[in-house]
Amino acid sequence: MIYRTIKGSLLTVFALAIIIPCSIVIMGAFKTDLKIISEPLALPESWNVDNFKRLIDSGSVYTPAKNSLIVAFFSVFITLSLASLAAFAISRLITVTGKVLFVLFSVGLAIPGQVNIIPIYLLFVDLGLTNSLTGLVLVNIALTLPISIFIITAFFRDLPKEMFEVAGIDGAGPWRIYRSIALPLSRPAIGATGIFLFVICWNDLLYPLMLITREDKKTLPLTLIDFRGEYLTEYSMIYTAILVASLPMVIMYIAFQRSFIAGLTQGAVKG
Amino acid sequence: MRKSKNMIRRGESKVLLLMALPAFSIYAVLYLYPALSNLLWATRRWDGNPESEPETVGFRNFTYMFSNDDVFIQSLGNNFRFMLLVVIFQTGFSLLFATYLTKNTRTTIFLRTLYFFPTILSSVSVGLIWLALYDPNYGFINASFKALGFESLALNWLGDSRYALYALAVTQVWFHTGQMMVIYVAGLQQIPQELYEAAQVDGASRWQQFKHVTWPMVLPTTAVVVAYTTIQTFRAFDLVYTMTNGGPLNSTEIIVTLIYRNAFFGYQYGYAAAQTVVLVVVVLSITWLQRRTLRLDYGVK
Questions:
Q1: Is A116 on the interface with B (CB under 8 A)?
Q2: What pTM, to 2 d.p., does this model score?
Q3: Closest Cα of chain B to A153: distance in Å?
Q4: Which long-range contacts (CB under 8 A, 24 or more apart) does B278-286 make?
Q5: Gyration radius of chain B's alpha carbons
Q6: Bond preceding residue B50 cis, omega within 30 of 0
Q7: Would you give the DSSP letter of residue B160?
Q8: What is the C-alpha to C-alpha distance for residues B176 and A203, in angstroms, rounded to an integer?
Q9: Predicted local distance difference test score (pLDDT) of residue B301
Q10: Which of B178, B166, B177, B176 lies closest to B244 in space, CA to CA?
């Protein structure tokens, strides 16, 4: 009895700890600053979209959202393509080279990515890749390749070998086996990895902060950081901006819950 | 016959190597090379001015760091305290909730999905949300304390150097407990139900069942959770930068935020590079120690 009560109340408390802040943000986006402070938990009097209009008129939504989308899409797409190719090669290569490759990529898992902050910055200044979305895409690819290769290689190794061997006897080359057998079979694993990568790239702050200073190249997290200074305690604007910046993730989370949770935890377990 | 088969194999490995080549090139140029050149930068002094030449100073960056740089020592200490707090509470809560939510029912799946939710938000969004919650005058936390009659608890959570690091730890735990819980749930679901049944037949209490069945069985998962949480606390740049930017009085300065400040505001690129080397050594040694301890424990059982 006591056990059940404790269990129930702990679960409720943590559920509320998540629901309350989120509802303050969601409802705050439809309220005035005065109402946010006086009645943070009350439903807004009407679902008026003044805050959203003001946010869009300030010109700080469209460009960063577009930039974030471009960076995340290309980073994920290229990383997945390169990683699945490399993972296929590593899982199929029986030679020493295959093992060496795998070890080299694993080094990237052992070294935390931050070790590269300074040299990447200096390198990108030299190459003229600061203030460039291409630069951000390149950084994302380099940082996420090791973990992606690790996850996908593990998946390929678990596939029954016979399937590849039969195809090999039938005369299919590595390319053919990769495209017609390995890729279709690994769609769930690659999808989950893709979600994991997308969340990382969409949310990253450190590298954009280092590499981007021009207004027209900023990503959403950078714009949100600017909002902190610009609107200080004007919470209606801050909440609206948070809501807009998080909405794509929230919708995807609701639609693909399972792959999301799988993707974001396999990243943790394998990493 | 054998010869021709070998030839096919050889041709095949060439194609396979070609498939790995693009990934490897990018990785070599933008990960391995920078990581190695960082070691070189760590032995230099340079203000980033293209007119001036980097000056080689050997190990002086490191000796200075540990003998004269109080802020660095403080940030090292902060980072350890932050790690301990988050590892203890995040691991504890995630294991507790996971034991409550191991079974798959509609309620448990809903709660798991809800608890996991913060993980998908960006650190910046989470930081801004908690900045608002902690607001000393208008924030929800202090408003609740006042409404409930605990006026004395309505503190300036992020603005007071005594509490700021704890306030950040609370946010971090809120942020990632759900993610670690899901890892635990996967681990707990692997434990054979018969073990619990046998324990119940022997009249084991809930606590005894946890101590003698759950804990030893879930130890490998704990090793993963603790290692991942530790790494998270050493790269909590985004959250700290958003919420306190290291302040007040450096009380929430962690190693990464200090590196960022030294490099991009102090223009001490060599010195900052040396600090990243220390960061990597610290993270690798801690995770190695943890793995060893948890494995040893596991071996004893």
A1: yes
A2: 0.91
A3: 12
A4: B278/B62, B278/B65, B279/A112, B279/A114, B279/A115, B279/B234, B279/B255, B280/A111, B280/A112, B280/A114, B280/A115, B282/B76, B282/B79, B282/B234, B282/B255, B283/A112, B283/B230, B283/B231, B283/B234, B284/A110, B286/B83, B286/B230
A5: 25
A6: no
A7: S
A8: 15
A9: 35
A10: B166
User: Residue type at B219?
Assistant: L
Q: Does A71 touch chain B (CB under 8 A)?
A: no
- Tokens in use for B265? 């505001």
Helix H or strand E encompassing A90: helix A62-92
Q: Give B238-253 pLDDT, tens digit per residue.
A: 999 999 999 899 999 9
Question: What is the rounded average pLDDT of the residues A195-207?
Answer: 91
ipTM: 0.91
Query: DSSP of B236-295, one letter per residue?
Result: -HHHHHHHTTT-STTTT--HHHHHHHHHHTS--HHHHHHHHHHHHHHHHHHHHHHHHHHH
The answer to whether B176 and B229 are in contact (CB under 8 A) is: yes
Q: Report yes or no: A149 and A270 within 8 Å, Cβ to Cβ.
A: no
Interval A66-121: pLDDT, tens? 999 999 999 999 999 999 999 999 988 877 888 888 888 888 887 777 778 999 99
Size of interface A-B (CB pairs under 8 A): 253
Residue B45, classed as helix, strand or coil, is strand
